[in-house]
Design goal:
About 0% of the residues lie in helices and about 50% in strands. By secondary structure, it is mainly beta. It contains no helices and eleven strands. The radius of gyration is 13 Å and the shape is globular. A hairpin with a 6-residue loop joins strand 5 and strand 6.
């Protein structure tokens, strides 16, 4: 069982930065691939970024490539999402997810555990 708690969301102006954190409980965090997803009002949840258990494999959605950076610290049971050059279109609730996967996945159904989400609002 893994419990996930996101933090770091907030209100920021376009062009600004935020760093999201996702703290995981359980001693097997390092065995899980981790992903970040987001859901904007009126839209379906979409993939943002994912990282393998070792950090050696990383995927990004095209919409955030070059602006967002996913990383993890297995000693702290935490995964991060550094978000730079934020745009109003990045406004959404951001969720982290964990899955016992050999490689990170971009599909929601691959992940077994989800956090409650943290709101990110980017003003123009």
């Amino acid at each position: 069982q893994v419990q996930l708690v996101e933090s770091g969301g907030g209100l920021v102006q376009a062009g600004g930065s935020l760093r999201l954190s996702c703290a995981a409980s359980g001693r097997t965090f390092s065995a899980y691939a981790m992903g970040w997803f987001r859901q904007a009002p009126g839209k379906e949840r979409e993939f943002v970024a994912a990282i393998s258990w070792s950090g050696g494999i990383i995927y990004y959605a095209d919409s955030v490539k070059g602006r967002f950076t996913i990383s993890r610290d297995n000693a702290k049971n935490t995964v991060y999402l550094q978000m730079n050059s934020l745009k109003p279109d990045d406004t959404a609730v951001y969720y982290c997810a964990a899955g016992p996967l050999p490689v990170p996945a971009i599909q929601e159904y691959e992940y077994d555990y989800w956090g409650q989400g943290t709101q990110v609002t980017v003003s123009s």
